[in-house]
Design a protein that fits this description.
The complex is a heterodimer.
Chain A: H1 2-6, H2 22-27, H3 32-60, H4 71-106, H5 115-134, H6 151-154, H7 157-186, H8 199-231, H9 244-261, H10 264-278, H11 285-298, H12 314-342, H13 351-374, H14 376-382, H15 386-416, H16 422-448, H17 463-493, E1 525-526, E2 539-540
Antiparallel strand pairs in A: 1-2
Chain B: H1 3-6, H2 15-50, H3 66-91, H4 95-126, H5 135-167, H6 177-202
The chains are: A mainly alpha, B mainly alpha.
The structure holds protoporphyrin IX containing FE (HEM) and copper (II) ion (CU).
């Protein structure tokens, strides 16, 4: 038993037999990398569908009195647009998608802790997505993605379908969070201490408990809404003693942490891309890592800043305002760290890097309007106006989506073995960047002038800027089409990437593209942080990875 | 939770099993945490509605019968004790005693459910207090205790499966994670009941 002397015989030395056949390999796969790609594909399909809804909204707003769709349909369209973008696009892409694809390799694990659970999480997701879109067939919800009662109690049958669909996708998120958290806590390679983990892993590490805890709170709120609607149990019904404001508390107790679910993994992506293309160690590693944890924690204490106009008790307003200001501090720390990373770096403007830099710029603007909104006197004026729509799109599109695009250009070679086309990529970036700003900057002054959100018509004085926004949004959509064309083209004809096209230093780049289903022939030992470009790689045991030799442990060995 | 060290003869378990068990235990604890959040959210809803200024219990509803529920609670806490002894006996190799304690736990769990059914019956048909028809009282009381009862029911089913599996020799003195998980779950359901009993009957 000489092998046993070297290997402990635990999970790290255990390789399952290679899955055989198309179904086991690509459909009901247990491999976290395949599941990650499944999430990405499904998420981008939903992205196209909800993008179509977005363009319906913008087309309606070409004219002050609308006319493209009926006001009722308009209400349904923006409600499903928001819900789908949050729960079927951004969250699954960032957690189930990039999370699955990247972080287990980055910590030197062979898979996540519970591969079966992972597969289940994934398959719930497309099902709940179809349920959500099917609500159009029975009268979709009309009260926005927040579905405030009493309007949501009066909505047609689709609102119950909405609640069920979001509940299910929430179950999937919860299981993903649990799975990731156990994986990060228990399955890191030898030497991979918490303060040696790549920052993308830190992003997932901070997100996972939010997925696990906050999403369950949402499940309760949704279950109560469903019960209220279907069985008449008066949780939120004010005519029978229930409280609509209670829904707001329960919803935002989830949904504020959820905005961090939607941004912390993107922070992680940016923190990998910036040092790689600046060829410079990340500035303030620990500050970035710990501020993610701080944000996750503080994120549970600020929810009522969405309710300043909902009759919140005055003695609660001030604490929530101050806590919201405080949460801006760790966010600012990150922005300064990223800027300092770029400072004096040898910057290579690849498409991934352009998106990362674009992220820093646009997210900062969104963060600043967030600080505006935290100020109660200001918020009272702009709550429920287009200013809010501007804020959320700067953080969610300028932030999360730009992060997703950066991640796609960065990791596409790892998943497919081929590079995305850089020329198309640059067109994608610039058209998207211009179109994005054109669409969403004017919303800030429209909001301050009093244009309410979620209304199918508007005052004619706002016509010019609305048309401007609509045309800019077409440009943005065009840019996204370029991106899809790029993906389809590059899968077939893209340049061969090799194991490490960017000269990056985290573990996933030290194995072939795409990696073997068992990730590592031999689980490496880690000696330091991955970001110091002047030093040799801080890993031992990777010598065999790029050769043709078989893995050190036989498949199926017990 | 050092389960590994509690196994008297760990000789038969290999490293793979030990590590897998650790993952499962961790995952199971996280599952309990998120389940706890589910209860907490509804408890928040209950307290929020209760304090919304309509007085408690709301007009038209009697105070709940503490005495009966107290006896029923004793039954449930008793089942927590028997479950504890079941696990301890298994660990130290007293298989038959383990089986008897497990069966006792199931019986007590079913008794608790029976008590709850009796109480529901009395409320619904005796006092006409219903889930949908009694305002925030019906909403919060039946939802929370119903959720808890459902957890007890799932637990009873699980323990029944444990009995069958144990009889078939599935668990050995080194490998018995299924029993550990069942015990943790059962204690968790007990603790939730302590909270529910306090806020519905005592508060
Ligand atoms: C510096 C950090 C931030 C601060 C201080 C902040 C503050 C706020 C405040 C006070 C509101 C409530 C406005 C109102 O409805 O009257 C708000 C709304 C919102 N924020 Fe932020 N925010 C920040 C970052 C983010 C991030 C990173 C995201 C997501 C990635 C985000 C997403 C949202 C969303 C989705 C809404 C509102 C939704 C709605 O009413 O539909 N925010 N923010
Ligand atoms: Cu918020």
């Amino acid at each position: 038993m000489s092998v046993a002397a070297v290997h402990s015989g635990g999970i790290a030395d255990h390789i399952h037999p290679e899955p055989q056949g198309f179904i086991r390999r690509y459909v009901f796969s247990l491999d976290h990398k395949i599941i990650g790609i499944q999430y990405l594909v499904t998420g981008f399909v939903f992205f196209m569908l909800s993008g179509l809804l977005a363009e319906t909204i913008r087309t309606q707003l070409l004219n002050p009195n609308g006319g493209f769709v009926s006001p009722e349909t308009y209400n349904e369209v923006y409600s499903i647009h928001g819900s789908a973008m949050v729960w079927l696009v951004v969250i699954p892409l960032l957690t189930g998608g990039f999370g699955n694809l990247v972080f287990p390799v980055q910590i030197g694990a062979r898979d996540v802790a519970f591969p079966w659970l992972n597969m289940l999480s994934f398959w719930i997701f497309p099902v709940s997505g179809l349920m959500l879109f099917s609500s159009f067939l029975m009268g979709a919800p009309t009260a926005g993605w927040m579905e405030y009662p009493p309007v949501s109690l009066q909505g047609q049958a689709g609102t119950s379908m909405w609640a069920a669909a979001i509940f299910l996708v929430g179950v999937s998120s919860t299981m993903t969070g649990l799975n990731f958290l156990v994986t990060i806590l228990k399955m890191r390679a030898p030497g991979m201490t918490f303060t040696r983990m790549p920052l993308f892993v830190w992003g997932q590490f901070a997100t996972a408990p939010l997925l696990m805890i906050a999403t369950t709170a949402l499940a309760a709120a949704l279950a109560a809404l469903f019960i209220n609607r279907e069985f008449g149990v008066p949780f939120y019904d004010p005519t029978k003693g229930g409280s609509p404001v209670m829904w707001q508390h329960m919803f935002w107790f989830y949904s504020h942490p959820a905005v961090y679910i939607m941004i912390l993994p993107a922070f992680g992506i940016i923190s990998e891309v910036l040092p790689t293309f600046a060829r410079k160690s990340i500035f303030g590693y620990k500050m970035i890592a710990f501020s993610s944890a701080a944000i996750a924690l503080l994120g549970f204490m600020v929810w009522a800043h969405h309710m300043f106009t909902s009759g919140l008790a005055p003695f609660l307003q001030l604490p929530f305002m101050i806590l919201t200001y405080i949460i801006g501090v760790p966010t600012g720390i990150k922005i300064f760290s990223w800027t300092a990373t770029l400072w004096g770096g040898k910057i290579h403007y690849s498409t991934a890097m352009l998106f990362a830099i674009g992220f820093v710029a646009l997210f900062t603007l969104g963060g600043i309007t967030g600080i505006f909104l935290a100020a109660i006197p200001f918020d009272l004026h702009v709550h429920g106006t287009y200013f809010i729509v501007g804020h959320i799109h700067y953080v969610l599109v300028g932030g999360s989506m730009m992060g997703i695009f950066a991640g796609m250009y960065y990791w596409f070679p790892k998943m497919s073995g081929r590079l995305l086309n850089e020329t198309l990529g640059k067109w994608h970036f610039w058209l998207f960047f211009i179109g994005f700003n054109g669409t969403f900057i004017p919303m800030h002054w429209l909001g301050m002038l009093g244009m309410p959100r979620e209304v199918a018509t508007y005052d004619p004085q706002f016509t010019f800027w609305n048309r401007f926004e609509t045309f800019a949004s077409y440009l943005m959509t065009f840019a996204i089409l370029i991106f899809f064309v790029n993906i389809i083209w590059s899968i077939r004809y893209g340049k061969k990437a090799g194991a490490n096209p960017w000269g990056a230093r985290t573990l996933e780049w030290q194995v072939p593209s795409p990696p073997h289903y068992y990730n590592f022939k031999h689980v490496p030992t880690v000696y330091g942080l991955p970001y110091d470009f002047s030093q040799p790689l801080p890993y031992k045991g990777l010598e065999e990875e790029l050769t043709d030799s078989p893995p050190a442990v036989a498949a199926g060995a017990h | 939770m050092a389960v590994a060290s509690l196994a008297p003869d760990a000789g038969e378990v290999d490293q793979l099993y030990i590590e897998t068990r650790e993952l499962r235990l961790q995952g199971f604890l996280f599952f309990l945490i998120s389940d706890c959040v589910l209860f907490s959210s509804f408890i928040f809803a209950y307290l929020y509605m209760r304090n919304s200024g309509q007085g408690w219990p709301p007009p038209g509803v009697q105070r709940l019968d503490v005495a009966f529920a107290a006896w029923n609670s004793v039954v449930l806490f008793g089942s927590g004790a028997t479950m504890h002894y079941a696990l301890e006996n298994f660990k130290y190799g007293h298989f038959m005693r383990y089986m008897w304690f497990l069966l006792a736990t199931i019986v007590l769990g079913v008794m608790f459910l029976g008590g709850q059914a009796y109480e529901y019956n009395h409320l619904i048909f005796g006092e006409h207090v219903t889930w949908a028809g009694s305002g925030i009282f019906g909403a919060s009381f039946f939802t929370l205790t119903g959720m808890h009862g459902f957890h007890v029911f799932i637990g009873v089913c699980y323990l029944t499966v444990l009995v069958l599996q144990s009889a078939a020799g599935v668990y050995t003195r080194g490998k018995y994670f299924g029993i550990t998980a069942g015990t943790l779950y059962w204690h968790f359901v007990d603790v939730i009941w302590v909270v529910l009993f306090s806020i519905f009957y005592l508060l």
